[in-house]
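User: Predict the complex with magnesium ion.
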Amino acid sequence: MRDRQTDEFDKKVDELRTKIKGLDQLKVRDDVFDEYTLLGLYKLLSKGWITAMGGPISTGKEANVYLADRDGTPVAVKIYLTRTANFKKMQDYITADRRFINIGKSRRDVIFAWTRKEFSNLKRAEESGILVPHPLVFDRNVLVMDFLGDEHGAFPQLRLAEYEDAQAVYDEILEDIRILWRKAKLVHGDLSEYNILYGKGHPYLIDMGQAVTLDHPHAPGFLKRDLEQLNRFFSEQCSTIEVSDTLDELCGSSLQ
Ligand SMILES: Nc1ncnc2c1ncn2[C@@H]1O[C@H](COP(=O)(O)OP(=O)(O)O)[C@@H](O)[C@H]1O
Ligand SMILES: [Mg+2]
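Assistant: Here is the predicted structure with magnesium ion placed in the model:
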């Protein structure tokens, strides 16, 4: 049954739709901008983190990424899709993460926590010294980060990038994995040529929502898979280091 509170909430959401500059042009998927997303966007807008929304950079099942403007500087806005994201998988991963023991059980709670988790992972990764998009702020299921790109647009994913020295790129990504493990105490967990952008001569690791701390039961398995993915992609391009050697180096032979 509808009550006055619901009506007022709907009215507020309708107002937000017209207030958020650029939003009316985003017809990608109507269900992206449910009321919580709108409230999140509105909050970020009223606090000045976003000045106007631009077009989509990427649309997926878990999240959409939009270009947005912050006082003349481009930023990337990642919006987790509260309706279509794989909530069950997120729940499995997040409940084993000690940083997130007290989150609620609803779909919304889990997706909001996931957004917070990606923010926190990016921050830890950045602090350890590797190249990732600098995370600016998050609200509900909306994460704002630096836009990785230049005057030609967003940096390409590694699979589409052109680089001269494959060995140097491979070595740099492998070093990122090592630094993540040793300093940030994190494993990316979904590393691939899709989740690495390449620009200004360097690889940038992105998409860190699923990254876990070393005490997570998935950590060793994730590390092995990340290393295998990296070697698969580069195997024809340059010489690669055996996955077992890196596993030995980072976590000892017990994990193989
Ligand atoms: N900070 C950013 N700057 C520029 N492009 C980005 C940024 N973050 C994501 N993208 C683009 O959006 C795509 C999807 O982002 P990602 O974080 O991998 O989300 P998904 O969960 O949908 O895979 C990326 O492959 C990249 O092309
Ligand atoms: Mg991705």
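The chain is about 40% helix and 20% strand.
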